[in-house]
Amino acid sequence: MRNTVGWQVEGPSPALRRTPLERRDLRPDDLAVRVDYCGVCHTDLHAVSSWDGAGGRRLVPGHEFTGVVTETGPAVTRFTVGDPVAVGNIVDSCGECAMCRAGQENFCHAFPTLTYDGTDRHDGSTTLGGYSREYVVRDRFAHALPAGLDPAAAAPLLCAGITVWEPLHTLGVGPGTRVAVAGLGGLGHLAVKIAVALGAPTSVVSRSPDKAADARRLGAHGLIVSTDPEQLADARDRFDVVIDTVSAPHDLGPYLRLVAMDGTLSHVGHLGPVTVETTDLLVGRKKLSSAGSGGTPATAAMLDFCAEHGITADIELLPSARVNEALDRLRRNDVRYRFVLDMSDLD
Ligand SMILES: NC(=O)c1ccc[n+]([C@@H]2O[C@H](COP(=O)([O-])OP(=O)(O)OC[C@H]3O[C@@H](n4cnc5c(N)ncnc54)[C@H](OP(=O)(O)O)[C@@H]3O)[C@@H](O)[C@H]2O)c1
Ligand SMILES: [Zn+2]
Ligand SMILES: [Zn+2]
């Protein structure tokens, strides 16, 4: 085993502590990656907040990181030592089912191996995430980080970015598509940047009117205040695509009513049961969809697109020792728009 160090939730306490960790010895198709920067996703916060440590499992969050290859297994051909790489929230899949064959490993019928709190397909161990100094990953699930992308600000592309790229791309968003993004956070601000770069006139729907100037700076036309019934009524039926990134359970009705005839509400935020009033779909033949993460071809395409258009996240970079502060502030919606942890303080 290889020794490293990371930030782990201890028992039922929500605080993360610096802890020695072990990584597996490299399999033939594995890379060892020195993790330099790891984004703090709201999913990490959901995981930490609900963690009970049952069954002695361990939680080391982190599933959007960039770093440098430090060692390669003998069967690795795509990478060599020193290459800058990026890893998202999937680190393996069955490779044989229809979804994997279609390059949609994120929908693997045998369930993809998640970067943390997943189960390794070979040794059954629980995967430990990127809030650590080293990660060992199967080469197929590492992505070359395109030159020109700042490695700290690019880290959030690997979860937040790909999660909004897939629906924007597959819904055919382009010049003239009227897009609204609900929730201006980590996912939301990247959805705005990508939709704008795709040529789509884009608006933000937010409960935070003080984000209006940021919305415009990001390229949006404006911000609709989601708590103002008059503004919502004015925006009725106005958008071909609404990307809902809100991180708390909520009623979909107000967002469906923003969708134009035959348009789509893509719900990629808080996962869990939702209640839908069918007349909110019926009136205007609207569609409700969801998505999560992305396959390896889409992730590579998203990274190329972001490199071409100079898109990275707006980040606040903190030493990893301040991870608990980052999670507390994320809980309070006090981030513009993604915390990224600098792992170099773990050396
Ligand atoms: N589908 C997937 O694969 C996938 C991948 C990554 C994340 N997620 C999920 O997506 C959600 C967003 O993640 P994130 O990292 O972007 O979170 P985030 O940075 O905290 O952003 C979430 C935004 O939602 C809005 N919001 C938060 N609480 C709200 C409430 N109670 N009512 C209304 N709006 C609220 C806020 O925007 P405003 O201030 O503008 O209203 C906030 O900035 C999380 O639930 C996360 O678990 C899903
Ligand atoms: Zn995430
Ligand atoms: Zn599969």
UniProtKB/TrEMBL annotation:
<dbReference type="GO" id="GO:0008106">
    <property type="term" value="F:alcohol dehydrogenase (NADP+) activity"/>
</dbReference>
<dbReference type="InterPro" id="IPR047109">
    <property type="entry name" value="CAD-like"/>
</dbReference>
<dbReference type="InterPro" id="IPR011032">
    <property type="entry name" value="GroES-like_sf"/>
</dbReference>
<dbReference type="Pfam" id="PF00107">
    <property type="entry name" value="ADH_zinc_N"/>
</dbReference>
<dbReference type="InterPro" id="IPR013154">
    <property type="entry name" value="ADH-like_N"/>
</dbReference>
<dbReference type="InterPro" id="IPR036291">
    <property type="entry name" value="NAD(P)-bd_dom_sf"/>
</dbReference>
<keyword id="KW-0560">Oxidoreductase</keyword>
<dbReference type="InterPro" id="IPR020843">
    <property type="entry name" value="ER"/>
</dbReference>
<dbReference type="InterPro" id="IPR002328">
    <property type="entry name" value="ADH_Zn_CS"/>
</dbReference>
<dbReference type="InterPro" id="IPR013149">
    <property type="entry name" value="ADH-like_C"/>
</dbReference>
<keyword id="KW-0479">Metal-binding</keyword>
<dbReference type="GO" id="GO:0008270">
    <property type="term" value="F:zinc ion binding"/>
</dbReference>
<keyword id="KW-0862">Zinc</keyword>
<dbReference type="Pfam" id="PF08240">
    <property type="entry name" value="ADH_N"/>
</dbReference>
<comment type="similarity">
    <text>Belongs to the zinc-containing alcohol dehydrogenase family.</text>
</comment>
<protein>
    <recommendedName>
        <fullName>alcohol dehydrogenase (NADP(+))</fullName>
        <ecNumber>1.1.1.2</ecNumber>
    </recommendedName>
</protein>
<feature type="domain" description="Enoyl reductase (ER)">
    <location>
        <begin position="11"/>
        <end position="341"/>
    </location>
</feature>
